[in-house]
Task: structure prediction
Amino acid sequence: MYNSDYNRIPEDREPIETEQFHVYEAEPPKQKKRKGAARFVALGLCCALIGGLAGGGGVLAYNHFAGGSTTIYQGSAPSVAVNLAQVDGHTVLTPEEIYAANLGAVVGVNGSVTTNVFGYTVKNAVSGSGFVISSNATTSYILTNYHVINDVSDITVFFADGTSYDATLVGGEQENDIAVLRIEVGNLQTVTLGDSDALNVGEEVYAIGNPLGELTFTFTGGYVSAKDRSVTMSDGTVMNMLQTDTAINNGNSGGPLFNEYGQVIGIVSAKLSGSSSSEATVEGLGFAIPINDVRDMITSIIEHGYVTGKPNVGVLLDDVSQEAQRYGVPAGAEVMAVLDGSGADKGGLQAGDIITAVNGTEVSSVSALQEAVKEYKAGDKVTFSVYRDGDTTTVDVTLDEENQEREEAMNQLQQDYYEEQQAQQQQQQQQGGYFQWPFGW
Result:
């Protein structure tokens, strides 16, 4: 836990001003050797260990016993200015140029969160990071991680120059951990997107973010350690990630990961920070969402408020239990309820059906079924292999679109199913003492 002035919201803080310090090399003039110099040097070192007056004591002792004087030599050299380079996709930039060229487009993200213990609403320090991805004359859009703004209200973004703005959530996609915010100010600096597929392992990459929510607008660098890593998130979602040894910490989430041309090729999302089976410290294992994986989704959220084209079947599902499988029931995704008017309803899926394959690809669980259907879009027709009443048949289903209306309908179906099960079972709970909610999908 860090407690500091940074726990105040950004608009209440005073900007911190720093001055540049330069260390110059200079060759001091040669001094004449003094007899017994080693003895006096040793004495000076002893004085340096004494305590509060250590440094001064060493100098005074030398002056007193040697009868000499001390001189501090200062050289001079021209200061080096960092050019504000243009990100053109062809010119390799220095780390200094990458930071200078993109700092104005990076933001900190914070907001109000209701605690789980006492129910109080508190104002966070920086929850995470983000960056301006689009800006017109009146409005700007900021990309961040979904988990940064999930369950957060009164969202505020702030820039390195000290300005801050209230932000509105345009839409998000939890499965891919992206969200888009809108602020009512235009003509802001934006980042330039690169091609994450063109990255090679070993290429240098850089991040700008707000580690720990306090060390705002920190710049770190490293290498692409691996591509196409399948990373299981805390909620069980499996995501495709870029792996990097760039220093990443809490508060960096949602910030940009740049290539050597100063283009954004990833969204910093996660860090492997420990092991549940040991006390070993894990460092240098950071992950970012490849920008190519979510580019179209970002555009869709900006234009429509959600990711268009995502498929939805219109059923509640649960895994076939191990007990049922011991009696000859195949592994798969069991249909618990069907939404009226959905593609599943029109195609003929029924409660009690067990889906075992999608277009010939076997599936043994709900997650496997979801992964198989992800390969299709809303409007596509897929063939489900179904185990029903001891026989196997096929059902053709035209996939619906996942949107806000469908989400609300599925939530209501799940609630109705829960209440029906409660009434039928008369307080008898399922599966080890608790009621297991089926997956709505």
Observations:
- The first strand starts at residue 106 and ends at 114.
- The CA atoms of residues 296 and 307 lie 8 Å apart.
- Residues 1-66 have pLDDT under 50 and may be disordered.
- The chain has nine helices and 23 strands.
